[in-house]
Design a protein that fits this description.
The complex is a heterodimer of chains A (238) and B (297).
Chain A (H helix, E strand, L loop, with lengths): L5 E10 L2 E11 L4 E5 L6 H9 L6 E6 L2 E2 L5 H7 L1 E4 L11 H8 L3 H4 L2 H11 L1 H5 L10 H14 L4 E5 L7 H16 L4 E4 L3 H7 L2 E6 L2 E7 H6 L1 H8 L2
Parallel strand pairs in A: 3-8, 3-9, 6-7, 7-8
Antiparallel strand pairs in A: 1-2, 1-4, 4-5, 9-10
Helix pairs in contact in A: 3-7, 5-7
Chain B lengths: L5 H32 L6 H19 L7 H26 L7 H23 L15 E3 L2 E3 L1 H23 L1 H11 L1 H6 L4 H23 L9 H16 L4 H18 L5 H18 L9
Antiparallel strand pairs in B: 1-2
Helix pairs in contact in B: 1-5, 1-8, 1-9, 1-10, 2-3, 2-4, 2-8, 2-9, 3-8, 5-6, 5-8, 6-8, 9-10, 10-11
């Protein structure tokens, strides 16, 4: 079997007495887009925060291309190559677009190549190049999401995670964003994406996992999941 | 009210500007630390006091010129600030699960640091008033008929220059950008690959290093006692809140406002009442502009 780009095995985490992840296992292979689906509170964001090292894992393991990354500090995880665009964008709103992107390239591996990467990101999202010296707060919601994805790309991710990139966007912007995600895949970066637009993300994803109450309850190819009765009833309202 | 001689009034104005700029310079580090970490460093003045004593002892024991002692006091205070953050405050931040430190617990912690440093200084150095003297013959500069004290002018210029250099450094360097990003969003900074604990320690170090600079520059004209820090610390706090928390130019502007106001008011009322009046001005300005003169609303 090919080495996984990202592999979590029996991952457990929580806050205080609350157990959020109750033994989650998932894998992401090189070149894949994998969707993570689940209701609010199922543990999707906590999963990403745990992999990133913002929440300490209480059990299980996480490996990136075979190297363990669980227990590392967040900046070490980013340097190792797992980079996420967090829920709610979390931009540095008082800083310019260009500065947001440069901060994204802070890790040593990415910093040396920041000039090349920033041209790639500007190529992917021309609107960011046009407004590079403007404050991030002046961008529209959709443009801010582009910036959040661009900032994550600046870190030269070996695995990219996107937490609800389409949240709050107008339908036309959602289409554009999904186009951008496909473009990122062509850069040969595997992507783990959390989405509320279940139908759209499953149409694009190679595989998907459904997270319920801190456990993976269903997984399969994007097509199989769209056909799945339980998933159709619960998340697509069909 | 006594009729005012315009010459005396302009002398007071010039002095107020000089002292105000110095207040602003002393407050820079407090503003930086508060802006980045949301920690009120109650030990701010104590660190200035240590820098003053370092300058005094370097001269008393090794004959080092106060102005030259900058090369020792600045790195020394940087190291001290770096240590205070990484040894004393960092464990508290690690325990916080929320985005920012509970302001009260950090305040209590730094208040403890203040008590320890000030009392250790009292034990070690005694209550005697000390002073350092510069070997340079610094004649007052005549601004028309108004004499300008050179030591104060030097410290004032250093304040303006450090504010400019600090702003430029925060804008133009990788570490400076990392500090600003961490100030705006700690988690997003960490996810971008920034070593947040290191940024905090460097920020605290820089805030303290600035006090090392001003300790050496002020040692030649203010009396040095173990308690001298507190009044500077409190005034710095007022300056920072008045100017806008985390704003570098705000720190200087806040200092100038307080300095000039106190100097002019003390021409009409006794100096102690002038200090009370400046607190009144402080409250008044905050009623109109709660985020400070240069702060973002």
């Amino acid at each position: 079997m090919q080495q996984a780009a990202l592999e979590a095995i029996d991952l457990r985490a929580g806050y205080g007495d609350v157990r959020v992840l109750d033994g989650v296992s998932l894998r992401l292979d090189p070149g894949e887009i994998v969707a993570l689906i689940g209701a609010n509170g199922a543990g999707k964001t906590t999963l990403l925060r745990t992999v990133s090292g913002l929440v300490r894992a209480r059990g299980g393991s996480v490996s990136l291309y075979g190297a363990r990354i669980d227990g590392l500090a967040p900046h070490r995880v980013a340097e190792a190559g797992f980079v996420q665009s967090p829920e709610g964008k979390q931009l540095f709103l008082g800083m310019s677009i260009q500065e947001n992107l440069l901060v994204g390239a802070h890790n040593r591996r990415a910093y040396a190549r920041r000039r090349t990467t920033i041209d790639e990101v500007y190529g992917l999202f021309p609107i960011l190049a046009e407004r590079r010296d403007k404050a991030a707060s002046t961008l529209s919601g959709g443009q801010q999401q582009m910036l959040a994805v661009g900032r994550a790309l600046m870190a030269r991710p070996r695995v990219l995670a996107l937490d609800e990139p389409s949240l709050g966007l107008a339908p036309i912007m959602v289409d554009r964003l999904f186009e951008a995600i496909r473009a990122v895949r062509r850069l040969d970066i595997p992507i783990l994406v959390i989405e509320q637009n279940v139908f759209q993300v499953l149409s694009m994803a190679d595989r998907g996992y459904v997270l319920e109450n801190g456990r993976v309850t269903l997984s399969g190819s994007g097509r199989d999941l769209i056909e799945n009765e339980h998933l159709r009833a619960t998340y697509l309202g069909l | 009210m006594a009729p005012m001689d315009p010459l005396i009034l302009s002398f007071a104005l010039v002095n107020g500007l000089l002292i105000g700029g110095i207040y602003g310079g002393v407050a820079l580090g407090l503003s930086l630390i508060f802006g980045v970490m949301r920690v009120v460093n109650f030990a701010h003045g104590s660190l200035l006091m240590l820098a003053l004593y370092a300058t005094f002892w370097l001269q008393a024991l090794a004959g080092i010129e106060p102005y030259a002692s900058i090369v020792v006091t600045v790195p020394l205070l940087f190291a001290l600030g770096f240590l205070i953050q990484s040894v004393i405050i960092a464990p508290l931040i690690r325990r916080e699960s929320a985005l920012v430190v509970e302001p009260l617990s950090a305040l209590l912690l730094t208040a403890g640091v203040y008590l320890v440093i000030d009392n250790l200084a009292l034990m070690a150095f005694g209550p005697d008033v000390r002073s350092a003297t510069t070997g340079f013959a610094l004649e007052p500069l005549m601004l028309g008929p108004i004499p300008v004290n050179m030591q104060r002018l030097i410290a004032f210029s250093a304040a303006i220059l450090s504010a400019i250099l600090l702003s430029a450094w925060l804008r133009g360097t990788r570490m400076g950008r990392a500090i600003r990003a961490t100030a705006q969003n700690r988690d997003a900074a960490a996810l971008s690959g920034i070593d947040v604990p290191l940024v905090y320690a460097v920020t605290f170090g820089i805030g303290a290093a600035l006090l090392g600079l001003f300790g050496s520059l002020l040692a030649t004209f203010i009396p040095i006692t173990p308690q001298v820090g507190l009044s500077f610390g409190i005034r710095s706090f007022i300056v920072v809140v008045l100017g806008g928390i985390g704003s570098i130019p705000g720190s200087i502007v806040g200092g100038l406002v307080i300095g000039v106001f106190e100097a002019l008011a003390s021409q009409f009322v006794p100096a102690t009442s002038a200090a009370i009046l400046s607190l009144g001005l402080f409250v008044l300005i905050l009623l109109v502009r709660p985020s400070g003169l240069m702060g973002r609303a």
